Model the fold of this input.
Amino acid sequence: NAGVMQNPRHLVRRRGQEARLRCSPMKGHSHVYWYRQLPEEGLKFMVYLQKENIIDESGMPKERFSAEFPKEGPSILRIQQVVRGDSAAYFCASSHGSGRAAAYNEQFFGPGTRLTVL
Amino acid sequence: SQQGEEDPQALSIQEGENATMNCSYKTSINNLQWYRQNSGRGLVHLILIRSNEREKHSGRLRVTLDTSKKSSSLLITASRAADTASYFCATPETSGSRLTFGEGTQLTVNP
Done:
């Protein structure tokens, strides 16, 4: 049973370009979360999605950032017109939508995408 | 202090010693989770302790939870060099919602 998969693992962009980060949740998981980690800091919540729905995007900047989790395919975190301050590790996590895992919000994390903006 | 704040920020010990890390939080929780992150890698879920539990063991890990003090501790016994990593506590805000992470404790185990 494959875990949460993220790609690419490393992404380099120049200022002003777009970054697209992909996340495939664990099999059977219908909830996806994106977190950002700046160097030497903990993870900060960005957005929580279920299939075709954004449930909570309160941690995501209003400008330039968007996320989706379509009916088919991976979840996408999109950053338009990247700036140097967007350089960070972006982690995706998934959880099951029901049962014990949902009740306790057990989340399983992918390996992350490290974005570097030159 | 912010939700899920770890203490100390950094800890350096010798192999074989025990390592204790503490976490404090502010709001009511139904569980608290500990994660490990090796340098430049993703997070590994270590253990979840429910709010009605006081102590939980998993191998060399022992986690305690004191809901009256809103604090938790993670004890790693007989540490190994491979335990070198950052350790984070995390609390869910509501069921099915975000996890709030602390800033982490950087543990270094010297061989």
Q: What stands out?
A: The interface with chain B takes residues 31, 33, 35, 41-45, 48, 55-56, 59, 91, 93, 95, 97, 102-112, 114 of chain A (CB under 8 Å). The first helix of chain A runs from residue 99 to 104. The radius of gyration of chain A is 14 Å.
